[in-house]
Specification:
alpha+beta, BirA Bifunctional Protein, domain 2, SH3 type barrels, 5 helices, 24% helix, globular, EC 6.3.4.15, biotin--[biotin carboxyl-carrier protein] ligase activity, BPL_C
């Protein structure tokens, strides 16, 4: 399973496949403690029993239906304050992959969910180790709904529900890993404007007024992302900055 090599230099060249595990991020984090583990090592499973999402949420995935995997990266070229640059690179890599298969209604929901229309298609969880003010290591957990058709969450969807096509997971994974490496190498080459422009261009409700909830319910317009990844909103002519847990989309 998952024996098709990606067209990459290092991402996914070493695949650790587990038929079932509690969390690929946890397994990848354990592997990364071995100083000999190569950058790009990828842990993939067919059945993730305790996957984690943002805000401490669990990640629902029917066994054998979706892509659930984690990649070990060593982005020591990034300062700790630049952590959101990695987030944008990974998010745009996933967007680029999905756009090869789905109609033009894919979006990145800040900070790093993948949406089709108003339904969630996938999520990203990045867990980093900082040393000497650098991102010494990052475990990139990605979950994409591919062939699953039944969800307990009404706002979830999958590639199959959208396109009515059954996908070969073993063929999709190397394509996604190739996209991930391409954007990671752009990040390493400091092509930051390319990454940020692509992230903003495809951001869910970018430059459109909508309703949010913080300490109150209000209307605002997303106008950008600041240097540390905070959401910039125009609220009645004033610019407000919100960190991830400080605001909720309604």
């Amino acid at each position: 399973m998952y024996n098709i090599p990606p067209n990459t230099l290092f991402v996914g060249r070493n695949i650790v496949y587990l038929p079932s595990c509690h969390s690929t991020n946890d397994i990848a984090t354990s592997l990364s403690r071995d100083t000999n583990v190569t950058e790009g090592t990828t842990v993939v499973t067919s059945n993730q029993t305790a996957g984690r999402g943002q805000r401490g949420n669990s990640w629902e995935a029917e066994p054998g239906k979706n892509l659930t995997f984690s990649v070990i990266l060593k982005p020591s070229f990034l300062q700790a304050s630049e952590h959101f640059q990695l987030n944008m690179a990974v998010s745009t890599a996933c967007y680029s992959f999905l756009s090869q298969y789905l109609p033009e209604d894919i979006h990145i929901k800040w900070p790093n969910d993948l949406y089709f229309g108003h339904k969630k298609l996938g999520g990203i969880l990045i867990e980093s180790v900082i040393k000497n003010n650098r991102l010494q290591e990052a475990v990139i957990g990605i979950g994409l709904n591919i062939n699953q058709q039944q969800f307990s969450e009404p706002k979830a969807t999958s590639m199959k529900l959208i396109s009515r096509v059954e996908y070969n997971l073993e063929k999709l994974l190397p394509q996604l890993l190739t996209s991930l490496e391409q954007f990671y190498l752009k990040l390493k080459a400091r092509d930051l404007s390319y990454i940020q422009n692509n992230y903003l261009k495809n951001l869910y409700f970018y430059q459109k007024k909508r309703t949010f909830k913080s300490d109150r319910i209000f209307e605002g317009t997303i106008i950008g992302i600041d240097e540390i990844g905070r959401l910039l909103l125009d609220v009645e002519g004033e610019i407000h900055r919100f960190s991830f847990k400080e605001i909720e989309f309604l």
